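Let's do one together. I've listed all components of the complex below, 232 residues spread over two lines.
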Amino acid sequence: AQKVTQAQTEISVVEKEDVTLDCVYETRDTTYYLFWYKQPPSGELVFLIRRNSFDEQNEISGRYSWNFQKSTSSFNFTITASQVVDSAVYFCALSEIDTGGFKTIFGAGTRLFVKA
Amino acid sequence: GAGVSQSPRYKVAKRGQDVALRCDPISGHVSLFWYQQALGQGPEFLTYFQNEAQLDKSGLPSDRFFAERPEGSVSTLKIQRTQQEDSAVYLCASSLELAGGYNEQFFGPGTRLTVL
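Okay, and this is what the predicted structure of the assembly comes out as:
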């Protein structure tokens, strides 16, 4: 069955530290998409990135980078030089093309606290 | 408006009452999703619409939950005979394209339902 595991419930860092949020997924599909969303205190989830299962190239966007490794079923997210505004809950998610219907499966989230 | 809007933002219901939650997706967005988010958890898929067609309702927890999108724009999630375990934040999301959960989703602020 499809599953997304974010083992880190909460992480606390001091501003300017780097931090990595872990995501491990389970799927039997060969074609799927992985996502990261940010949920700030205001509550609205904001899309950060989408990756399909055939594209293992790592991606960097400003201070954000993502490491996708099919061999370990992981899609980790790193924030470099964290800032207070990065404080939020971050969700990893999975959508399966072959068997998943139209649903997106979210992990339980990792709450990130960045202290000034 | 520019984003997904939901109303009401907060709803308190007595156990056994019926409630109706409204979602206004971004204009022109074909796909619409409903999620239930319990405290400290990730969003859980409830149902998916492609225009006015409800293509996936596999996540609806019971037959007390009903969703509609009659004209392919505004959607309503109705919960009949509410129970305490229905207390959660109900999130609506929309997406421009047809392909279910494979694309970026734009989320509304949610409706926080409390059942007493």
